[in-house]
Amino acid sequence: MDIKLAKHDKRYIESTDDVYSIMQRVLLRENKIDQEKEHFWIIGMNLRGYILYIELIALGTYKAVNIEPMNVFRVAVMKNASRVIIVHNHPSGSLTPSEEDKDTTDRLIQVARILNIELTDHLIITPRSYISFRTTRLMEELEQSIKYVPPYQVVERIRKEEKKIAKEQLAVEKNKTKAEKEKRQKLAQATANALLDKGVSIEDIAKILEITPKAVEKIINLK
User: Fold this and answer.
1) What's the whole-number mean pLDDT along residues 101-121?
2) Cys bridge to 30: 34, 94, 143, 220, which one at CB 3.0-4.6 A?
3) Locate the MPN domain: which residues (predicted)?
C-alpha cells in the first residue's frame, strides 16, 4: 500500500531523524487497533536522498510480521529507486532488535546487492523513539555476514582477501629488504670512509669490503 506524505513532511532524507519524523506520523495516523500490530515499510529514494515512495509491505500481528524479500524490492525496481530504507514498529515499545529482525535484514541486504540497490538502514520505531541499525553499527555487522551469501561469492571473497593479504605481505617484505639494503650501504660507506681517513687505498678497501673499486668510489661519493 502506497503511503502518502503529509503536507509538512520533508521530501528529502538527510538523517535518521528525518526518517523517524515521517514514519512516526505515519504510524500515529493508523487507528488504535492497527497501531498495536507490527508494520513493515520501505522508503525508496534516488541517489540524492529524494523520497520516491513509501510503501507498506506487510501488516502483521502484535509481535511479528512476515516478509517476502522480493515484495520488499518490487516497487523499488519498478520506480528505479537506487537506495532504500526499511522501517518497522514494535508495538511492545521495545527498541531491541530481535533475532528475526536481524535475520530479515541479513537476507534483504543480499537481495539488495543482487538488484544493485543500496539498503541504507533499518529503523525500529515506536510512537516515542527509534533505533537505527546503521547508527548502532549493527548494519555494518550484518553487511559482513555470509549466512545468505551464495557459496561461489563466499569463495570469491576469500580469494580476494587472500590476494589482499599477499599483496600487503609483499609490500612489507619489499620495505624490509629496502631497509636492510640501506643499512648495509650505510655501514659499508662508514667503513670505507673510516679506512680512507687512515690512508688505506681504494683498491685495498675494495678487497676488505669484497666489492669493486668502482663500488667503493660510489659509496664514498668519489668519481
Assistant:
1) 92
2) 34
3) 12-139
Length of the chain: 223
**Closest residue by Cα to residue 97 from 124, 68, 60:** 124
Percent pLDDT > 70 in the chain is 93
Topology, domain 2-149:
Cytidine Deaminase; domain 2 (3.40.140)
Q: List where CATH 3.40.140.10 sits in the chain.
A: 2-149
208, 211, 217, 219: CA torsion to nearest 10: -90
Q: What is the pLDDT of residue 223?
A: 44
Segment 143-186, tens digit of pLDDT: 988 888 777 665 566 577 667 767 777 777 777 777 788 887 88
Which residue matches cell numbers 534483504?
Answer: 108
The answer to whether 205 and 216 have CB atoms below 8 angstroms apart is yes
